[in-house]
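User: Sequence recovery, please. Input:
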């Protein structure tokens, strides 16, 4: 491992959750406002939402904006409009829960804990198997990316920075790239896209985990997390898929425990 490693992150970076249907301006604001209200429970599943005319008056937009917003929300599985029955909220099972907009609206509506619990379950089911497969099938180029990701993670962890907020941000980015590199090793477009969809919300999860471990201004309480990540990397380098899978499972289980502590801290 080289002594000097500059943090460079491959892949796409998400500072915030961005929807698959990119809408801006008045329409974008209307879609976001209505989406947040729906996932937040202003109108419960099965119930009719406010009439178009009432929403136009309340939100100060035209009827064409409300109708287009309804169309977009319908595409995301949140509502269904019928001439004879009005516009009703769909059952939660119909919502496109992996849609980044829907995840963003859940956060804005205060549904953060439920969302993060869901993400942890996905990680626990998904990532140990991904590491197992990556350890078996990674190409030389993919292995080089995993090594690079680990070097960057070590660099960020061990290098002091007077800007604690920036160091924390870089730590989260390095963590995401470490996990992303194993997915890339499997060479599955479906898995890579799944991670791309949820990674901004995972960044929120990592931030909560760091807070629960005590790191608010300095890298305190993250020693165990770093050691657990190192165990995954070591077993990957040894090409032991069973041990690498077990190491990743321990890492995710620790994250679940930390997140649980974080949730308790946020509960009055």
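Assistant: Recovered sequence (268 residues):
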């Amino acid at each position: 491992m080289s002594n000097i490693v500059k943090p460079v992150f491959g892949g796409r970076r998400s500072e915030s959750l961005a929807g698959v249907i990119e809408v801006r301006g008045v329409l974008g604001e209307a879609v976001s406002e209505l989406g947040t209200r729906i996932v937040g429970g202003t109108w419960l599943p099965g119930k009719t939402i406010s009439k178009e005319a009432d929403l136009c008056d309340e939100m100060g937009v035209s009827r064409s904006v409300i109708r287009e917003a309804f169309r977009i929300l319908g595409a995301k599985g949140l509502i269904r409009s019928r001439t004879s029955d009005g516009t009703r909220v769909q059952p939660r099972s119909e919502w496109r829960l992996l849609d980044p907009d829907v995840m963003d609206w859940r956060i804005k509506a205060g549904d953060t804990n439920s969302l993060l619990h869901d993400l942890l379950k996905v990680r626990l089911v998904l990532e140990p198997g991904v590491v197992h497969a990556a350890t078996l099938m990674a190409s030389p180029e993919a292995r080089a990316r995993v090594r690079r990701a680990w070097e960057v993670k070590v660099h960020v962890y061990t290098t002091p920075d007077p800007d604690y907020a920036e160091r924390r941000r870089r730590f989260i980015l390095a963590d995401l790239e470490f996990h992303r590199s194993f997915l890339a090793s499997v060479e599955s477009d479906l898995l890579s896209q799944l991670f791309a969809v949820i990674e901004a919300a995972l960044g929120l999860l990592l931030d909560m985990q760091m807070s629960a471990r005590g790191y608010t201004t300095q890298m305190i309480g993250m020693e165990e997390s770093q050691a657990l990540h190192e165990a995954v990397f070591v077993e990957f380098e040894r090409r032991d898929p069973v041990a690498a899978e077990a190491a990743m499972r321990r890492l995710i289980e620790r994250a679940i425990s930390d997140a649980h502590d974080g949730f308790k801290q946020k509960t009055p």
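The beta strands are 79-82, 86-89.
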